[in-house]
Amino acid sequence: MATQKISLGEKLAFGAGDCGCNFVWNVLALFMTIYYTDSVMISAAAVGGIMLASRIFDGISDLVMGAILDKTKTRWGKARPWILWSAPFMAIALILTFSVPDISETGKVIYAFCTYFFLTVIVYTASNLPYNALLSFITDDQKERTSLSSIRFFMVNFLVIILSFVTPPAAKALGWFGITTIYGIIAMCCLLITFFFCKERIEPVEVKKENISFVKSLGYLVKNKYFIYLAIIFVIDYIMFAVNGSSGMYYVKYIFHDENIFGMLVLFGNVPMMLSCLFFPVIANRFGKWNCMIGGYVVMIIGFGIIALFPDNYYCALLGNVIAGIGRAPHNAGLFALVADVVDYGEWKTNKRIEGVTYSVTSFGMKVGAGLGGAVTGIVLAMGNYDGSLAVQSDSAITAIMAICAYIPIGICVLGILIMLTANIDKIYPQVVRDLAIRHAKEN
User: Fold this and answer.
1) In this predicted model, what pLDDT tens digit does every residue of 246-255 receive, in sequence order?
2) pLDDT score, position 206
């Protein structure tokens, strides 16, 4: 494999694309549930149903988009044109999703489902899956991929801090339509920066030799055990992130009775995660990405545990978020860097390189995990008899809020550790690199 040194400017342009995606994704993750329950007055159970129903189609859309990406061939490359084409629709879909009309509750649920489906299943898939696949087209150097991922997530976490401070007061001042219109336009511009300033340098040999059918691609994926592992890890991680992330506004509103401290909790969680992401390449090169992610689960358990033990202590909440943020860094930076390694492993194992369908694990895992996490949030709140029209919640509702804030994330971390202890791609990856280099040299 050749080594390409990627300029800092291009790395920042690559990160801009993820910022664009997260003007959409994190607004959904942090504010969508409470927007539905407290602003639109859709029941928590219905919110859970909306998100759960959308997940039925997500797996299909991701695999189909992955297959389309594998067959895409333009003068701009394979991934970049989809980032360009989808950019305006990301803005439109976000605005529509946060514009539920004042109609009957049944009408609200139908509208919410249709717009949420359009945004997450169709538009976000067409944008984010190619964006994530772009990493393997920019470079085939593992260290450069890790660096790109780390800078990308540093930028995203900084963005999330800004969103957490700005969005609650801005939504009150401008309304959800106003603030999502601004966010949508910025998201579109960020994606266009990635399109114009990033380059696709790596052209898979297999694309020139063979037109691999969708069914065959699925067969090759089944033989790639690390694709299965990574898909599972993506799903459970994003269930955890969605459950914990969507709990934040409920947590500050009903336990601390002060929505203005939401930004502080996010700040204390994300700054340690941002700083840890910067050091992640060095640590990963020493211990391996896989082991770092196992360690991340352990650290997150400690952080969530502090919040669970001292639920109404503001300083313990800050401390817990600091520790959990450090634990999240290996997962935020490492997960996406691992996908490129899984693509290489799949080529080594089957002699077929299928980036598009393999990268469907990112979009599939994020959306299915976030959707299931949103469904879990709605179901747990409904089981606790949460009522968005009440200023003070019942004891059962408070317990439900703590469950989505800390108890359920702890359980998911334990599950993640058990899964990851059964395999480790870092052990075999050096051999994969050597063998592929020899194979490519012979083919050329």
Assistant:
1) 898 999 999 9
2) 47
Q: Is residue 2 part of a domain?
A: no
Phi, psi of 98 (to 5 degrees): -100, 30
Q: What is the pTM of this model?
A: 0.76
Domain that includes residue 99, residue range: 9-197+213-443
Q: Which residue has the higher pLDDT, 343 or 174?
A: 174
Each residue's pLDDT tens digit, 92-120: 999 999 999 999 989 999 999 999 999 98
How confident is the model at residue 213, as a pLDDT?
A: 63
Tallying the residues shown for the chain, one arrives at 444
> What's the total number of domains in the chain?
1
pLDDT tens-digit profile of 346-386?
888 888 777 767 766 666 777 788 878 888 998 999 999 99
| Residue 217 belongs to some domain of the structure | yes
Q: Say if 395 falls within a structural domain.
A: yes
Q: Round the average pLDDT of the chain to a whole number and report it.
A: 87
Domain harbouring 13, CATH code: 1.20.1250.20
Encoded tokens for 189: 């511009």
* HEC per residue, the chain: CCCCCCCHHHHHHHHHHHHHHHHHHHHHHHHHHHHHHHHCCCCHHHHHHHHHHHHHHHHHHHHHHHHHHHHCCECCECCHHHHHHHHHHHHHHHHHHCCCCCCCHHHHHHHHHHHHHHHHHHHHHHHHHHHHHHHHHHCCCHHHHHHHHHHHHHHHHHHHHHHHHHHHHHHHHHHHHHHHHHHHHHHHHHHHHHHHHCCCCCCCHHHHHCCCCHHHHHHHHHHCHHHHHHHHHHHHHHHHHHHHHHHHHHHHHHCCCCHHHHHHHHHHHHHHHHHHHHHHHHHHHHHCHHHHHHHHHHHHHHHHHHHHHCCCCHHHHHHHHHHHHHHHHHHHHHHHHHHHHHHHHHHHHHCCCCHHHHCHHHHHHHHHHHHHHHHHHHHHHHHCCCCCCCCCCCHHHHHHHHHHHHHHHHHHHHHHHHHHCCCCHHHCHHHHHHHHHHHHHHHC
- Tell me, yes or no, whether 4 lies in a domain: no
